[in-house]
Amino acid sequence: MMRRVLALLVLSILAAGVAPVLAAGQETPDERPENLPYFYDAAGMFPEDQRNTLARDAQLLQSTGIPTLVYVREASAAQAAIEESQDFADQLRTDWGVESEEGADDGLVLLVSWVPNTPQASTAVFSYGAATFENSGLTPEAIQETIDTSVASLIDQGKPFETLVYLMRETRYTGIYSPPPPPAIEGMARTIHESLDWVTPVAVIAVTLLLASRSIAFWRTGPVSREIWSVTGGVLAAVLVMWMAAVYAQSRTGVAGALIILALLALACWLWTHTPFTTRHATLARRRSVPPTRRLMRQRHQLRQMFARATGAGR
Q1: What is the pLDDT of residue 125?
Q2: What is the mean pLDDT of each run of 10 residues along the chain (315 residues)?
Q3: Are the C-beta atoms of residues 21 and 79 closer than 8 Å to each other?
Protein backbone atom coordinates (compact mmCIF):
# COMPACT_ATOMS: atom_id res chain seq x y z
CA MET A 1 0.00 0.00 0.00
CA MET A 2 2.79 2.37 0.92
CA ARG A 3 4.48 1.71 -2.44
CA ARG A 4 1.31 2.68 -4.31
CA VAL A 5 1.05 5.92 -2.41
CA LEU A 6 4.67 6.78 -3.18
CA ALA A 7 4.17 5.92 -6.86
CA LEU A 8 1.11 8.16 -7.07
CA LEU A 9 3.02 10.96 -5.34
CA VAL A 10 5.94 10.70 -7.80
CA LEU A 11 3.56 10.72 -10.77
CA SER A 12 1.80 13.79 -9.39
CA ILE A 13 5.09 15.67 -9.03
CA LEU A 14 6.16 14.71 -12.55
CA ALA A 15 2.81 15.74 -13.99
CA ALA A 16 2.99 19.08 -12.19
CA GLY A 17 6.44 19.71 -13.65
CA VAL A 18 5.71 18.57 -17.18
CA ALA A 19 2.32 20.27 -17.59
CA PRO A 20 3.70 23.86 -17.71
CA VAL A 21 6.32 22.81 -20.22
CA LEU A 22 3.70 21.23 -22.47
CA ALA A 23 1.47 24.25 -22.09
CA ALA A 24 4.34 26.55 -22.98
CA GLY A 25 5.09 24.55 -26.12
CA GLN A 26 1.42 24.48 -27.20
CA GLU A 27 0.73 28.20 -27.15
CA THR A 28 -2.10 29.21 -29.45
CA PRO A 29 -2.69 32.53 -31.26
CA ASP A 30 -4.77 35.25 -29.65
CA GLU A 31 -8.42 35.47 -30.57
CA ARG A 32 -8.87 36.82 -34.07
CA PRO A 33 -9.77 40.54 -34.16
CA GLU A 34 -13.01 41.46 -35.88
CA ASN A 35 -11.07 43.27 -38.61
CA LEU A 36 -8.00 41.36 -39.70
CA PRO A 37 -4.98 43.64 -39.10
CA TYR A 38 -1.85 43.87 -41.24
CA PHE A 39 0.37 44.05 -38.15
CA TYR A 40 -0.31 42.55 -34.74
CA ASP A 41 1.79 43.16 -31.64
CA ALA A 42 0.54 40.39 -29.33
CA ALA A 43 2.53 41.50 -26.26
CA GLY A 44 2.56 45.26 -26.80
CA MET A 45 6.34 45.22 -27.21
CA PHE A 46 6.70 48.55 -29.02
CA PRO A 47 5.86 52.16 -28.13
CA GLU A 48 3.21 53.94 -30.16
CA ASP A 49 5.54 55.62 -32.67
CA GLN A 50 7.33 52.38 -33.52
CA ARG A 51 4.04 50.52 -33.66
CA ASN A 52 2.68 53.07 -36.13
CA THR A 53 5.76 52.66 -38.31
CA LEU A 54 5.45 48.90 -38.28
CA ALA A 55 1.72 49.06 -39.05
CA ARG A 56 2.41 51.37 -42.01
CA ASP A 57 5.12 49.06 -43.37
CA ALA A 58 2.81 46.07 -42.95
CA GLN A 59 0.10 47.90 -44.88
CA LEU A 60 2.54 48.77 -47.68
CA LEU A 61 3.52 45.11 -47.78
CA GLN A 62 0.11 44.37 -49.31
CA SER A 63 1.34 46.04 -52.53
CA THR A 64 2.96 42.72 -53.45
CA GLY A 65 -0.56 41.44 -54.15
CA ILE A 66 -0.37 38.82 -51.38
CA PRO A 67 -2.63 39.11 -48.28
CA THR A 68 -0.03 39.33 -45.52
CA LEU A 69 -0.17 39.38 -41.72
CA VAL A 70 2.90 40.33 -39.66
CA TYR A 71 2.62 38.90 -36.14
CA VAL A 72 5.13 39.53 -33.34
CA ARG A 73 4.98 37.89 -29.92
CA GLU A 74 7.10 37.47 -26.82
CA ALA A 75 8.01 33.84 -26.26
CA SER A 76 10.19 31.55 -24.25
CA ALA A 77 13.18 29.88 -25.85
CA ALA A 78 11.18 26.65 -26.17
CA GLN A 79 8.25 28.43 -27.83
CA ALA A 80 10.58 30.29 -30.16
CA ALA A 81 12.14 27.09 -31.50
CA ILE A 82 11.80 26.81 -35.26
CA GLU A 83 9.43 23.82 -35.17
CA GLU A 84 7.18 25.36 -32.53
CA SER A 85 7.15 28.74 -34.27
CA GLN A 86 6.34 27.14 -37.61
CA ASP A 87 3.38 25.28 -36.13
CA PHE A 88 2.19 28.50 -34.52
CA ALA A 89 2.46 30.41 -37.83
CA ASP A 90 0.59 27.71 -39.75
CA GLN A 91 -2.18 27.65 -37.14
CA LEU A 92 -2.33 31.44 -37.12
CA ARG A 93 -2.78 31.61 -40.92
CA THR A 94 -5.56 29.00 -40.76
CA ASP A 95 -7.41 30.20 -37.64
CA TRP A 96 -7.32 33.88 -38.60
CA GLY A 97 -8.21 33.20 -42.24
CA VAL A 98 -5.30 35.08 -43.81
CA GLU A 99 -6.34 34.91 -47.49
CA SER A 100 -7.96 37.08 -50.13
CA GLU A 101 -11.26 35.19 -49.85
CA GLU A 102 -12.50 32.06 -48.19
CA GLY A 103 -10.84 28.99 -49.65
CA ALA A 104 -8.29 30.94 -51.73
CA ASP A 105 -5.35 29.67 -49.63
CA ASP A 106 -3.17 32.53 -50.88
CA GLY A 107 -2.17 34.26 -47.64
CA LEU A 108 1.21 34.86 -46.02
CA VAL A 109 2.09 35.10 -42.32
CA LEU A 110 5.41 36.54 -41.13
CA LEU A 111 5.97 35.56 -37.50
CA VAL A 112 8.68 36.90 -35.20
CA SER A 113 8.97 35.13 -31.83
CA TRP A 114 11.02 37.39 -29.57
CA VAL A 115 12.74 36.03 -26.45
CA PRO A 116 13.28 39.10 -24.20
CA ASN A 117 15.91 37.62 -21.88
CA THR A 118 17.80 35.83 -24.63
CA PRO A 119 17.37 37.75 -27.93
CA GLN A 120 19.71 35.37 -29.73
CA ALA A 121 17.14 32.59 -29.22
CA SER A 122 14.49 34.59 -31.08
CA THR A 123 13.32 33.34 -34.46
CA ALA A 124 11.53 34.52 -37.61
CA VAL A 125 9.45 32.11 -39.69
CA PHE A 126 6.73 32.39 -42.32
CA SER A 127 3.71 30.38 -43.40
CA TYR A 128 2.12 30.42 -46.84
CA GLY A 129 -0.68 28.70 -48.72
CA ALA A 130 -0.73 26.61 -51.89
CA ALA A 131 -1.66 29.60 -54.07
CA THR A 132 0.32 32.34 -52.29
CA PHE A 133 3.08 32.83 -54.88
CA GLU A 134 1.19 31.91 -58.06
CA ASN A 135 0.98 35.47 -59.43
CA SER A 136 3.94 37.10 -57.73
CA GLY A 137 7.67 37.33 -58.26
CA LEU A 138 8.10 36.76 -54.52
CA THR A 139 9.22 33.24 -53.63
CA PRO A 140 9.64 31.24 -50.40
CA GLU A 141 13.35 30.98 -51.17
CA ALA A 142 13.69 34.77 -51.29
CA ILE A 143 11.96 35.24 -47.93
CA GLN A 144 14.05 32.49 -46.34
CA GLU A 145 17.26 34.06 -47.66
CA THR A 146 16.27 37.39 -46.08
CA ILE A 147 15.62 35.65 -42.76
CA ASP A 148 18.86 33.66 -42.86
CA THR A 149 21.05 36.72 -43.59
CA SER A 150 20.12 40.25 -42.52
CA VAL A 151 17.20 39.33 -40.24
CA ALA A 152 19.29 36.78 -38.35
CA SER A 153 22.04 39.37 -37.92
CA LEU A 154 19.61 41.93 -36.45
CA ILE A 155 18.16 39.29 -34.11
CA ASP A 156 21.65 38.49 -32.83
CA GLN A 157 22.15 42.20 -32.13
CA GLY A 158 18.95 42.28 -30.04
CA LYS A 159 17.04 44.75 -32.27
CA PRO A 160 13.39 43.66 -32.57
CA PHE A 161 12.15 46.87 -34.22
CA GLU A 162 14.85 46.85 -36.91
CA THR A 163 14.29 43.13 -37.40
CA LEU A 164 10.63 43.62 -38.29
CA VAL A 165 11.25 46.71 -40.41
CA TYR A 166 13.91 45.00 -42.49
CA LEU A 167 11.89 41.79 -42.85
CA MET A 168 8.81 43.62 -44.11
CA ARG A 169 10.61 46.06 -46.41
CA GLU A 170 12.90 43.50 -48.00
CA THR A 171 9.93 41.17 -48.59
CA ARG A 172 7.98 44.04 -50.15
CA TYR A 173 10.82 45.15 -52.44
CA THR A 174 11.40 41.59 -53.63
CA GLY A 175 7.71 41.15 -54.38
CA ILE A 176 7.48 44.44 -56.29
CA TYR A 177 10.65 44.31 -58.37
CA SER A 178 10.85 40.59 -59.14
CA PRO A 179 8.87 39.69 -62.28
CA PRO A 180 5.95 37.29 -61.79
CA PRO A 181 6.33 33.79 -63.23
CA PRO A 182 5.27 33.46 -66.89
CA PRO A 183 1.98 31.68 -67.59
CA ALA A 184 2.22 27.97 -68.24
CA ILE A 185 2.56 26.94 -71.89
CA GLU A 186 -0.09 24.45 -72.92
CA GLY A 187 -1.53 22.81 -76.03
CA MET A 188 -0.14 23.67 -79.46
CA ALA A 189 2.19 26.32 -78.01
CA ARG A 190 3.82 23.70 -75.80
CA THR A 191 4.31 21.34 -78.76
CA ILE A 192 5.92 24.10 -80.85
CA HIS A 193 8.07 25.17 -77.90
CA GLU A 194 9.46 21.67 -77.45
CA SER A 195 9.97 21.23 -81.21
CA LEU A 196 11.96 24.47 -81.50
CA ASP A 197 14.47 23.18 -78.97
CA TRP A 198 15.84 20.76 -81.60
CA VAL A 199 14.60 22.38 -84.85
CA THR A 200 16.47 25.64 -84.17
CA PRO A 201 20.03 24.18 -84.01
CA VAL A 202 19.35 22.11 -87.16
CA ALA A 203 18.04 25.19 -88.99
CA VAL A 204 21.07 27.29 -87.98
CA ILE A 205 23.49 24.62 -89.21
CA ALA A 206 21.57 24.15 -92.49
CA VAL A 207 21.48 27.87 -93.24
CA THR A 208 25.18 28.21 -92.40
CA LEU A 209 26.07 25.43 -94.87
CA LEU A 210 23.80 26.92 -97.54
CA LEU A 211 25.30 30.40 -97.27
CA ALA A 212 28.84 29.00 -97.16
CA SER A 213 28.28 26.92 -100.32
CA ARG A 214 26.74 29.86 -102.17
CA SER A 215 29.61 32.10 -101.13
CA ILE A 216 32.17 29.60 -102.50
CA ALA A 217 30.22 29.30 -105.75
CA PHE A 218 29.94 33.05 -106.11
CA TRP A 219 33.67 33.41 -105.51
CA ARG A 220 34.40 31.09 -108.40
CA THR A 221 31.84 32.23 -110.95
CA GLY A 222 30.66 35.61 -109.74
CA PRO A 223 27.37 36.34 -107.96
CA VAL A 224 24.23 36.42 -110.10
CA SER A 225 21.69 39.01 -109.03
CA ARG A 226 18.72 36.69 -109.50
CA GLU A 227 20.32 33.90 -107.48
CA ILE A 228 21.28 36.29 -104.69
CA TRP A 229 17.67 37.47 -104.41
CA SER A 230 16.43 33.86 -104.42
CA VAL A 231 18.74 32.79 -101.58
CA THR A 232 18.09 35.96 -99.57
CA GLY A 233 14.31 35.73 -99.97
CA GLY A 234 14.22 32.05 -98.99
CA VAL A 235 16.30 32.57 -95.87
CA LEU A 236 14.28 35.64 -94.84
CA ALA A 237 11.04 33.67 -95.22
CA ALA A 238 12.47 30.91 -92.98
CA VAL A 239 13.56 33.48 -90.38
CA LEU A 240 10.12 35.08 -90.36
CA VAL A 241 8.38 31.73 -89.84
CA MET A 242 10.80 30.77 -87.04
CA TRP A 243 10.39 34.16 -85.35
CA MET A 244 6.59 34.00 -85.38
CA ALA A 245 6.60 30.42 -84.07
CA ALA A 246 9.09 31.33 -81.32
CA VAL A 247 7.06 34.33 -80.17
CA TYR A 248 3.83 32.31 -80.15
CA ALA A 249 5.43 29.44 -78.22
CA GLN A 250 7.53 31.73 -75.96
CA SER A 251 10.72 29.95 -77.02
CA ARG A 252 13.94 31.78 -76.24
CA THR A 253 15.82 29.18 -78.26
CA GLY A 254 13.72 29.97 -81.34
CA VAL A 255 14.16 33.73 -80.97
CA ALA A 256 17.93 33.35 -80.55
CA GLY A 257 18.12 31.04 -83.57
CA ALA A 258 16.20 33.50 -85.76
CA LEU A 259 18.56 36.31 -84.76
CA ILE A 260 21.63 34.17 -85.49
CA ILE A 261 20.33 33.20 -88.95
CA LEU A 262 19.52 36.85 -89.70
CA ALA A 263 23.06 37.87 -88.71
CA LEU A 264 24.56 35.14 -90.94
CA LEU A 265 22.44 36.28 -93.90
CA ALA A 266 23.48 39.91 -93.38
CA LEU A 267 27.16 38.87 -93.36
CA ALA A 268 26.73 36.80 -96.52
CA CYS A 269 24.94 39.61 -98.37
CA TRP A 270 27.67 42.01 -97.37
CA LEU A 271 30.33 39.66 -98.76
CA TRP A 272 28.44 39.15 -102.02
CA THR A 273 28.16 42.89 -102.64
CA HIS A 274 31.57 44.05 -101.37
CA THR A 275 35.20 43.15 -101.75
CA PRO A 276 36.74 40.67 -102.36
CA PHE A 277 33.88 39.43 -104.57
CA THR A 278 33.24 42.60 -106.59
CA THR A 279 36.93 43.48 -106.97
CA ARG A 280 37.94 39.98 -108.04
CA HIS A 281 35.23 39.54 -110.63
CA ALA A 282 35.62 43.05 -112.02
CA THR A 283 39.31 42.35 -112.51
CA LEU A 284 38.57 39.06 -114.26
CA ALA A 285 36.04 40.77 -116.49
CA ARG A 286 38.53 43.47 -117.49
CA ARG A 287 41.15 40.85 -118.27
CA ARG A 288 38.76 39.00 -120.54
CA SER A 289 37.82 42.21 -122.43
CA VAL A 290 41.37 43.64 -122.94
CA PRO A 291 42.31 43.60 -126.67
CA PRO A 292 45.60 41.99 -127.72
CA THR A 293 48.66 44.20 -127.40
CA ARG A 294 50.87 45.16 -130.38
CA ARG A 295 53.56 42.82 -129.20
CA LEU A 296 51.17 39.90 -129.16
CA MET A 297 49.89 40.84 -132.60
CA ARG A 298 53.47 41.04 -133.91
CA GLN A 299 54.24 37.61 -132.49
CA ARG A 300 51.17 36.18 -134.13
CA HIS A 301 52.18 37.80 -137.48
CA GLN A 302 55.67 36.33 -137.25
CA LEU A 303 54.23 32.89 -136.54
CA ARG A 304 52.00 33.15 -139.63
CA GLN A 305 54.99 34.13 -141.80
CA MET A 306 57.01 31.24 -140.49
CA PHE A 307 54.17 28.86 -141.18
CA ALA A 308 53.74 30.26 -144.69
CA ARG A 309 57.44 29.90 -145.47
CA ALA A 310 57.53 26.39 -144.17
CA THR A 311 54.53 25.52 -146.24
CA GLY A 312 55.98 27.17 -149.38
CA ALA A 313 59.36 25.47 -148.91
CA GLY A 314 57.66 22.11 -148.58
CA ARG A 315 56.07 22.53 -152.03
Answers
A1: 97
A2: 52 50 62 93 94 96 95 95 96 95 95 95 96 91 95 96 96 88 80 90 92 80 74 89 90 92 88 65 52 66 75 58
A3: no
Reported as type and span, the H/E element at residue 125 is strand 123-128
Residue closest to 142 by CA, chosen among 189, 176, 103: 176
Please spell the DSSP secondary structure of 17-36, one letter per residue.
HHHHHHHHHT--PPPPPSS-
DSSP string, 160-215: HHHHHHHHHHHHHHHHHHSPPPPPPP-HHHHHHHHHHHHHHHHHHHHHHHHHHHHH
What pLDDT shows up at residue 33? Answer: 92
Query: Is 3.40.50.11260 the CATH classification of the domain at 28-177?
Result: no
pTM: 0.60
pLDDT given at position 19: 44
Strands 39-41 and 123-128: unpaired
Residue 189 is predicted with a pLDDT of: 87
- Dihedral over alpha carbons 124, 130, 131, 137 (to 10 degrees): 50
pLDDT at 93: 96
What does the domain layout of the chain look like in residue ranges? 28-177, 187-289
Provide CB contacts within 8 A for 45, sequence distance 6+: 72, 74, 114, 160
Instruction: Give DSSP secondary structure letters for 53-107.
Output: HHHHHHHHGGGGSS-EEEEEEE--TTTTSHHHHHHHHHHHHHHTT-SSSTT----
Candidates 137, 130, 134, 128; CA nearest to 107 is 128
Q: Determine contact, residues 207/235, Cβ cutoff 8 Å.
A: yes
What are the residues facing 126 on neighbouring strands? 110
